[in-house]
Amino acid sequence: MAAMTYESIVETVRKKFSKFDASSVPGTLAYQFNITGKVEGTFYVEFKDGKVNVEPYEYYDRNAIIIMNGTNLLKLMKGKLDPVLAFTTGKIQVDGDMESALELIKFIG
Question: Dihedrals φ, ψ of 71, to 5°?
């Protein structure tokens, strides 16, 4: 298995959303992910105009910040980590609009 890097995390998230139909998402929803632990970095996921953009930058006008380590984020993207359980056990922290964060959980599932 290849070593986990910031780039591989962003690419995994990008692939996860590459076939996502965002046409039902009204307006713009944006999430900044702050990755902690051995691999650190910041990137965003933006749902806008029927598309999903995943870019390795901060997003200032975001709905919420999702804070978690890279290992748990990869598990979440692969469906091997229950997002609600991860949140209640402190593996995921949310700073910002909790309702928007719950929307993101639906998109990941």
Answer: -60, -45
Q: Report the distance separating Cα 20 and Cα 28, nearest Å.
A: 15
Burial class of residue 57, CB neighbours in 10 A (0-12, 13-18, 19+): exposed
Helices 6-18, 70-77: axis angle to 10 degrees equals 20
Closest Cα partner for 54 from 95, 22, 82? 22
Report pTM.
0.93
- Residue holding tokens 């990008």? 14
Give mean pLDDT in consecutive 10-residue pieces for the chain, a chain of 109 residues: 86 94 92 96 96 96 96 94 92 95 85
* Closest listed residue to residue 2, CA positions, set 77, 70, 81, 86: 70
